[in-house]
Amino acid sequence: MFVPSGTMANQIAIKVLTNPQEEVICDKLSHIYYYESGGVAFNSGTSMRLLDGDRGRITPEQILDNINDPNAVYMSTTSLVSIENTCNKGGGSYYTLKQMEDISSVCRKNNLHVHLDGARIFNAITETNDAPHAIGKLFDTISFCFSKGLGAPVGSVLLSSKEKILKARKIRKAWGGGMRQAGYLAAAGIYALDHNRVRLKEDHLRARKIGGILSALSFVEKVLPVDTNIIVFAISPGVDVKHLLSIWQIGRSKSCPLANRPSGWSHILIYMKRCLKKLK
Fold it and tell me: 182, 238, 240, 256: which one has the fewest Cβ atoms less than 10 Å from its Cβ?
């Protein structure tokens, strides 16, 4: 199902898979927590259990330790686990297929739904060489974005069963996401899938090159490991981050502040973006 944004895809998935007074387990760096305007509470009436994972990646053990007692009337009912692959605030960190299989298994055994925020899933697959269908069968819902690593102008997709997509379409309509013109936008997404997936490795190599250059600069405190197409690095105290952002032009990339100190922004995120210059 095509939607205008990754946020809408995630929010519809959560709405489909949960009920009010239930709880979503996710990492503390998750996009659904940080960058979706409190939509989990506003749209679905659910709370969130934030886990302290490894650069955005959580484990089956952490999930087991944070499932609420379903008979405790004073607690939210745990009903959904959401993972992000790759993790934006984790510097493009990714899960292996085995890690996702273990998470899915724990969720099934404990009657929990599981959602994959796969906005950059093809960047992850580029590194792991996993088959997309092997990933797809592990989750109740999957979102992925055409306009990030794949480079299309706009749009995301929500994947699920026919039954859940029918419910998702009604929610999309109610939220104003149904568009008569979606075919034009989807065409760019199809082009990106057909032509740009094979070139994602180029973006990863460029990102690692930039990461290496940044690590040698005197005003850069730390660079997170560069796993895919995202570079996250910390700036030394006293450096004007806004000035840096204003003068840096890094080709087909985007730079933005990510985290702050009391004195101002201290972390910058750069991610490589492939562009669709022409559709044939």
Answer: 238
Cβ proximity of 26 and 80 under 8 Å? no
Contact criterion met (CB below 8 Å) for 50 and 33: yes
| Mean pLDDT, 10 residues at a time, the chain of 280 residues | 97 98 98 97 98 98 97 97 97 97 98 98 97 97 94 95 98 95 92 94 94 92 94 86 71 61 58 52
93 DSSP β-pair partners: 87
Its pTM stands at 0.91
Alpha-carbon span 180 to 173, nearest angstrom: 11
What single-letter DSSP state applies at residue 90?
Answer: T
Using CA atoms, how far apart are residues 249 and 87, in angstroms rounded to an integer? Answer: 24
Domains, in order of start, for the chain = 2-195 (3.40.640.10), 199-272 (3.90.1150.10)
> What is the rounded CA–CA span in Å between residue 40 and residue 179?
23
Nearest alpha-carbon partner for 68 in 83, 46, 43, 49: 49
Regarding beta strands 113-117 and 156-159, do their DSSP bridges make them parallel or antiparallel, or are they unpaired? unpaired
Strand 230-235 with 77-84, pairing: unpaired
